[in-house]
């Protein structure tokens, strides 16, 4: 272990502490293979200490006035805005996405922080006055206790900010496990959260892999677990944490179809698809990775290929770059292998992005925009989530066939339709069995006043991140039925019925 490299700390009970673990993982710049720092795989004792700190802090945090909680997040959103350039630079160095996209990553998380600052208007119960003689019934939305979040590599700013601000604003305490591949920007956000005034023990951070994930799923003092990541890991987390009696929400893999009708605005559609398929090097669970061309729209393929060919591949920090590197050499090899499988299974390779020449960055994990046409269900490039800058194209004759194709896929994260027909758009949004629908919008991730609503194979758990749903996820509804007596309303005699007369 190189002692000169920065080492990520754990956050336990308000203090940044160095792990006593013997297992450390390098944090690698995916454009250069430069080692930026090291992250510990926390010990089980350290996980237990973090949970114990959160459990103790909950005793007082749950009683903290809601206005006090809200003001912390007002301060936090200000600090994020003031440091967004620094945060984006850290993110780009360790994750690879372009600086503008990294700023977008931070900003979409910032929107949820702003939403958390409005918790006074969100965590409201209900009241029914005088439901019987002198009887009122009202509900309270009370915090659960210690909650945990497990976040992925592809959005190391946005997704942690989806989780801990809303959990903490609703009165819970939190254990965050960032991705071990790019935890540096997450830890900087954590530092700013403490600066904003989050008390000790309310937010804790442990790093690690499967052992730490399992410990969070199993720990009896953790009441709820939030997860974003792959379907394989998400299914494991959901099953294990649910068996341990926890609330669980898991946002998982996807195969997002964009259906293009021939009446769509061609230029707008092709621009949108090129950005949505190849932005972030395709490493988005909401990437528009699958294009379904309806009827005469199949004639647009050459123009799409020409547009994608103009996108510039390179290191995310450089100006004018459109597509940065993949997160790791392993990810790069997997994407290249899937491209090879598409060729072998008979799809037509319209644009080959393998092994692009990026001068000065020959060791980078680069794959350029890649396009396949003639794709059919059953091919690996259709059946698997590629998670790289690869756009696959299928062709059908009618909108009805396109809807049937999308609905036959097991995933339901997002979908889109491109058309200038209101009737076609309405039919699509009504008949499609996918949780999030875009109409001339390729990546329909909702703003925080709404909830992220992926469905079917892309989601386990009934309540999604942020918005109204996450307030319900992080709170327990307690219903109170109350009667107060005065001398004039004292009841006379024993009532053995269930009524409230």
From TrEMBL:
Database matches in Gene3D superfamilies: Aldehyde Dehydrogenase, Chain A, domain 1, Aldehyde Dehydrogenase, Chain A, domain 2
Any one biological process term the GO annotation gives: L-valine catabolic process
MF terms in GO: methylmalonate-semialdehyde dehydrogenase (acylating, NAD) activity
InterPro entries: Ald_DH/histidinol_DH (IPR016161), Ald_DH_C (IPR016163), Ald_DH_CS_CYS (IPR016160), Ald_DH_N (IPR016162), Aldehyde_DH_dom (IPR015590), MeMal-semiAld_DH (IPR010061)
The Aldehyde dehydrogenase domain, residue ranges: 16-480
NCBIfam families: MMSDH
The protein's name: methylmalonate-semialdehyde dehydrogenase (CoA acylating)
Classification lineage: Bacteria, Pseudomonadati, Pseudomonadota, Gammaproteobacteria, Lysobacterales
